[in-house]
Structures are given as structure tokens and as C-alpha cells.
Amino acid sequence: MQIKEGFTFESFTSEIAAVVGVGSVFSSLDNILKADSGEKLNLAHEEGKVFLIDFWATWCGPCQKPMRHNCELMEKYAEAWKDKVRIIALSIDDTPDALMRFIQNRQMEKVEHFVAGESECSEVYGVTGVPHVCLVDKKGKI
Fold first, then answer.
1. Domain residue spans in the chain?
2. What is the CB-side half-sphere exposure of residue 66 using CA atoms within 13 A?
3. pTM of the entire predicted model
4. Which end of the chain has fewer CB atoms < 10 Å from its terminal CB, N or C?
5. Is the pLDDT at 11 greater than 80, yes or no?
6. Quick one: 40 exposed, middle or buried, by C-beta within 10 A (0-12, 13-18, 19+)?
7. Strands of 50-56's sheet, edge to edge?
8. With 90 as the cut, is the pLDDT of residue 72 above it?
9. Class for domain 20-136, per CATH?
């Protein structure tokens, strides 16, 4: 192997990003905010439950129809999915207040709403744009 003249390891930089993906075990969503209270929390998987995590934003046109659909599903299957399925709407909007006004005005309260806030969950889950959906099975596998 030849090393170019002038190259030193001190001048070499590299960035490695690890993201969770299909087949990975769900990693908790740390430092997210509950939309209705602004409370910071870590959301971990619960054995036996299916999670549908929908990264979205109020200003994202393509996010609106799927979010309405998620709410319709939760309403339609409320009894059958009780304690079995959680649809988690994780907004990349800036504040819980703006998000809450938006979802209340559009009657999108059937799903659980959170704000990513200062969380690194977008980086962990490789979110480069919205909508971005992640399905987690009963055992916590994506």
C-alpha cells in the first residue's frame, strides 16, 4: 500500500454514523417530550406490544394524510389493539405548544404525540426526512 506524500494520520478525519435499522433491536427514544405536557422522558419498548413510530412534522405536506390514517386506525381498532399496539407520532417540530394546537385543530389526538426536541433519536433512527416510519414487533425488533 502506498501512502501519498504529505499525508499524515493527524490530518486524516473520518465520520462514522451508526443507525438502527431493519432487524435491529429497538433502542429507546431518549429525551423526547410529551406533547401535551412538555415532560421529558425516555420511551422504551414494552415486551408484547407493537410500536409504530411515525417521525413527522406539522409543516410537512406528505405527513398529513398518513397521520390522519394513523388516527383513524387507532379509532377503528381501539378495542382490539388496546394494550397491544401503540402508534407513536414523533414530531420534529420545535415546540410541544405549536404541535398541540395543530393536532387539536385537526382532531389528530387518537395517537400518542411526542416532540423530538433535543433528543438524538432522528440520528439514531437515520431520519433524513419526514415522513419516516419505524415498525417494532412484539419482541422489540425493527
1. 20-136
2. 19
3. 0.83
4. N
5. no
6. middle
7. 40-43, 29-34, 112-115, 85-91, 50-56, 132-136
8. yes
9. alpha beta
